[in-house]
Amino acid sequence: MKRFTFPLRPLGVIRAHRELRAREAFAAAVHAYVKAEERLAVVRARVAELGALLASGRRDRYLAADAAGFLRVYRTECQAEAAAERAVTEARAQMTQRRAEYLEADRRLKIVQRLEEKARARHRHDVLRGEQAEHDEFAGFRSAQRAATP
Questions:
Q1: d(CA 58, CA 74)
Q2: What is this structure's pTM?
Q3: What is the mean pLDDT of residues 84-112?
Q4: What angle do CA 36, 40, 44 make, to 5 degrees?
Q5: Rounded Cα distance, 127 and 3, in Å
Q6: Confidence (pLDDT) at 34
Q7: Helix (H, G, I), strand (E, B), or coil: what is residue 1?
Q8: Is 10 helix (H, G, I), strand (E, B) or coil?
Q9: Looking at residue 76, what is its pLDDT?
Q10: What is the pLDDT of residues 55-90, one digit of tens each?
């Protein structure tokens, strides 16, 4: 039985490596997106807390100096919330791009893997056919020897 060799094996190794790197990049992008979402949730909670604090400060005595300070802090937090929302949007776009790259790398790897499977099946079929031919030839010789010997 002759040994199976797949001529595209080096290409498969390269594509497997690229697929692995794309998967890792996608995982890192997902992690960054989750972190950005968590930061946004924290900032939104602070903004809601400050908003409630501003609203409750208006119920009691109104001190303009305190209100101005709270309003300044509230605006700063609102700007931080907008920045966090932009970061989430960017992280989502990055994650989508990395996902597309990963899917493309995976598709390319599977193409080579399917070609290798087909080549292996063809090789196995050819080897089995050759072995069957050898067995048939051997059986023919045996039959001929029996017929020739009285």
A1: 15
A2: 0.75
A3: 97
A4: 175
A5: 10
A6: 97
A7: coil
A8: helix
A9: 93
A10: 776 666 666 777 788 888 889 999 999 999 999 999
Buried-exposed string 68-88: b where 16+ CB fall within 10 A, e elsewhere = eebeeebeebeebbeebeebb
Structure tokens at 143: 């039959």
CA dihedral (40, 25, 23, 28) positive or negative: negative
C-alpha–C-alpha distance, residues 6 and 115, integer Å:
9
Query: How far is 47 from 43, CA to CA, in rounded Å?
Result: 6
Rg, C-alpha atoms of the chain:
35
* E strand map for 11-112: none
Residue with tokens 């692995």: 20
Is the Cα dihedral 116, 117, 118, 120 positive or negative?
positive
- Under 8 Å CB-to-CB from 16, ≥6 apart: which residues? 109
CA-nearest of 46, 24, 41, 26 to 92 is 26
Angle between helices 9-59 and 64-148 (to 10 degrees): 160
Q: Two tokens at 86?
A: 């932009």
Cα 47 to Cα 54: distance, rounded to the nearest angstrom: 10
- The CA–CA distances, whole Å, from 69 to 13, 56, 130 equal 62, 15, 90
